Structure formats: structure tokens, C-alpha cells
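Thread: "does anyone have the structure for this chain?"

Original post by V.I.:
We have the sequence but no experimental structure in hand. Need at least a predicted one for the grant figures.
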Amino acid sequence: MSVVPPEAIEVPDGVLSRVREADGERIALAVRASLDHLRPWMPWATEAAAQVEAQRVRCREAEDLWERGSAYIYALRQSHEGSVIGTFGLHRRVGPGAIEVGYWVHVDFAGRGYATAGAAALTQAGSALADVERLEIHTDEANVMSAAIPRRLGYRLDRVEIRPPEAPAESGRLQIWISG
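Reply from O.Q.:
Generated one for you, C-alpha cells below.
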């Protein structure tokens, strides 16, 4: 069992690597290209989020979160130096003994297995953390494409929480999928 996940994780056809400030430009480019794809489901998917400086700030925050052990954010690329396909994270925001797997993928790579591969790799990395007993993936009930990922990975639907929608296409029915 480990205390922190690895900084780089190989996945089929790619690599997840710890986000650094230098990734800001590549992440901004991916967000910019994918805004129409992300905006319905991600409250943060705005014109401002597609700016390089905004992503550099987010990357610096990700570095700080990693150091504090409260979140581990990765960029997914086809190679170590390639363009960003999406970002994935392990977030300690779901209570003691649990960690949440989060993800988004560039529009040009959606539906090609990258999100499933990244989420699978982070499920394995999160499961290897000494203090993690349960992993969660949260999806809005209307986001069928995203909800297919935890199903494929063997997560089970634990509950549906009602909440005000945070993004335009959300139903307000948050599915909580658990593994472990």
C-alpha cells in the first residue's frame, strides 16, 4: 500500500502524468477545442477556463493539492510530450476512507476508450492508497456517456442524490457509483 499515487501511469495508447504548471497551455488548448462538448456537463467549462493563464493557475493549484495530499490531478496524453487528451483526478472530497475519480476528455477523443482507460488506471491507483477503502465516481443521470464508464469498470450504483443542476444539461440527479 502506498501513501501517494505514482506521478505517471501508463494506460493503453497513452500516459497519465501528474499535472504541472507547464501543462497549462496544452490543457487550455484541449479545453478550448472541447468547450461545446464539455459545457453541458462541466460547470467550470467556460471561455475563461480556456485561457492559458487560467489553466496555469489551475495547474499551480493542482500542484499544491498534490503536495497536501487532497487531490492528485493528471493530464492524459498519447505520449509523455504529446497534446493533452483530457484530465483525470483522484479527489479527497467524499469523506474519510474514500476518494472520488473524476475525468473529462477532449472532444476528438470521446468515445474511443480513453476515459475508461484513464478511470480504470486511477481506480487501480486509488485502491492502492493505504487510507482508501472506497472509490466513487459521480455522474449526472442525464450524462449517459459518462455513466457508462463506472458500469464498464465494475462500479455499482450506490445511490442517486437530488441537487440543483450545476451545468446546463444536468438533470439534478447525481449518481454515486462505488467500488471497493
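V.I.: this helps a lot. The two ends are 15 Å apart (CA to CA).
O.Q.: and Residues 8-179 form a domain with the Aminopeptidase fold (CATH 3.40.630.30).
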